[in-house]
């Protein structure tokens, strides 16, 4: 249940946080705030004693931060590790006004408990056997309507992300602007967002570096999708997929094969039962490739993309077939139908093992 009023400062965030915890404790459990002066001050913001029905107690060392971004996780972990190290048996907890799903996942992966004022909570204390997990809001209920939301949606973001994925290097902003083909302002906005998510960093000279391209790819998949970002029509290849690929190879229309058929270039998973193909003109492609419209039983999806980066840095195979770049194929599989997400994991494993062969 969301609070009626937005917590205005850290004191109000703490008050909301302990109320969320108290409301979700099992019957017979209690939580009380302890005075700072009773223990060494190692930089924490509050100390809460949680007491079980049998009288056993665990101290929760609290670090409060009104806004938490994914890049804050390492610093919070270090601060709470120092604090809990000074209080034997204690557990660290991050308390915030609101924690987004990616931030909650990052905190959980780091082994940190968390609470936000909307009711998102995950608190674990093996002694005395406490585990609480509950969902609050998945969107910040207090975000100002005029404030832009962090996102990787849209053409500029897709073009910048694809450039960062496809090249293993540190980037001067001007160089990234040129390769991605977007404005300087758009590039800065995307990089600033990636920095807040912990997906991009700057070195001492100001150059942009992607420390984990897989994490970047997964984050992009949250805002990009094969179907979401294209006009998709469905067709039947009456003579089978092999005949379709033979007809497509060398044809005059602009296209790029993606999905399972493309992934088989690098990491065969299972025989393809359908085709996913980007094309600049679906009707023209269907005519050239002898496809038939289908409402049911389709084995071909033709996608006219909103963003032409899907054609960038592809390759031509030995048969003359145009294949989308591995990074594009991977994100399309991650957001595709049926078994596509499992195939994406196989492709990502290949990409990780063979990074130098596709990431220049």
Notable traits:
single chain, 5-stranded mixed sheet, 20% strand, Beta Polymerase, domain 2, alpha+beta, Arc Repressor Mutant, subunit A, Trna Endonuclease, Chain: A, domain 1, 360 residues
Structural class: alpha+beta
How does CATH name the architecture of the largest domain?
A: 2-Layer Sandwich
Enumerate the spans where pLDDT stays under 50 for 5 or more consecutive residues: none
User: Helicity level, as a percent range?
Assistant: 25-40%
Straight-line N-to-C gap: 49 Å
Number of domains: 3
- Percent in strands: 15-25%
Rg calc: 25 Å
User: In this structure, how is the largest beta sheet organized?
Assistant: 7 strands, mixed
The CATH topology of the largest domain is Beta Polymerase, domain 2
Quick synopsis:
This protein has 13 helices and 16 strands. It has three domains: 10-134, Trna Endonuclease, Chain: A, domain 1, CATH 3.40.1350; 155-221, Arc Repressor Mutant, subunit A; 230-358, Beta Polymerase, domain 2, CATH 3.30.460.
Q: How would you describe what is shown here?
A:
The chain has helices at 10-24, 73-85, 101-109, 155-166, 173-180, 184-196, 213-221, 241-248, 259-263, 282-288, 326-334, 340-353, 355-358; strands spanning 30-34, 46-51, 57-64, 91-96, 113-116, 121-125, 130-134, 201-202, 208-209, 230-236, 255-258, 275-279, 292-293, 300-305, 315-316, 322-323. By secondary structure, the chain is of the alpha+beta class. Helix 4 (155-166) crosses helix 6 (184-196). The strands form four sheets. It has a seven-stranded mixed β-sheet, with helices on both faces. Strands 11-12-14-10-13 form a five-stranded mixed β-sheet. The chain is 35% helix and 20% strand. The protein is built from 13 helices and 16 strands. The radius of gyration is 25 Å and the shape is elongated. The model has no long low-confidence stretch (mean pLDDT 91). The chain has three domains: 10-134, Trna Endonuclease, Chain: A, domain 1, CATH 3.40.1350; 155-221, Winged helix-like DNA-binding domain superfamily/Winged helix DNA-binding domain (Arc Repressor Mutant, subunit A, Orthogonal Bundle); 230-358, Beta Polymerase, domain 2, CATH 3.30.460. The chain starts with 9 loop residues before the first helix and ends with a helix. A hairpin with a 4-residue loop joins strand 6 and strand 7.
């Amino acid at each position: 249940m969301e609070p009626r009023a937005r917590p205005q400062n850290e004191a109000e965030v703490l008050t909301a946080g302990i109320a969320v915890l108290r409301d979700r404790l099992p019957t017979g459990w209690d939580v009380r705030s302890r005075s700072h002066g009773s223990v060494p001050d190692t930089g924490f913001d509050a100390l809460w004693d949680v007491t079980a029905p049998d009288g056993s107690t665990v101290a929760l060392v609290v670090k409060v931060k009104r806004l938490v971004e994914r890049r804050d996780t390492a610093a919070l972990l270090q601060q709470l590790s120092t604090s809990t190290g000074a209080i034997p048996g204690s557990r660290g907890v991050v308390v915030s006004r609101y924690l987004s799903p990616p931030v909650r996942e990052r905190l959980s992966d780091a082994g940190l408990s968390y609470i936000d004022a909307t009711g998102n909570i995950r608190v674990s204390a093996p002694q005395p056997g406490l585990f609480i997990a509950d969902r609050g809001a998945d969107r910040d209920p207090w975000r100002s309507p005029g404030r832009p939301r962090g996102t990787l949606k849209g053409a500029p973001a897709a073009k910048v992300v694809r450039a960062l994925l496809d090249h293993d290097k540190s980037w001067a902003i001007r160089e990234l602007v040129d390769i991605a083909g977007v404005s300087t302002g758009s590039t800065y906005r995307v990089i600033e967002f990636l920095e807040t998510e912990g997906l991009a960093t700057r070195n001492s000279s100001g150059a942009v570096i992607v420390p984990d391209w897989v994490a970047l790819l997964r984050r992009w998949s949250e805002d990009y999708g094969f179907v979401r970002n294209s006009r998709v029509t469905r067709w039947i290849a009456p003579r089978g997929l092999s005949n379709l690929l033979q007809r497509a190879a060398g044809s005059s229309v602009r296209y790029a094969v993606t999905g399972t058929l493309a992934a088989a270039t690098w990491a065969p998973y299972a025989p393809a039962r359908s085709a996913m193909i980007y094309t600049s003109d679906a009707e023209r492609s269907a005519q050239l490739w002898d496809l038939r419209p289908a409402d049911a039983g389709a084995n071909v999806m033709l996608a006219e993309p909103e963003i032409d980066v899907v054609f960038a840095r592809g390759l031509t195979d030995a048969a003359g077939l145009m294949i989308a770049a591995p990074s594009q194929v991977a994100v399309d599989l991650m957001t595709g139908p049926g078994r596509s997400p499992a195939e994406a994991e196989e492709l990502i494993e290949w990409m990780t093992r063979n990074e130098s062969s596709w990431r220049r």
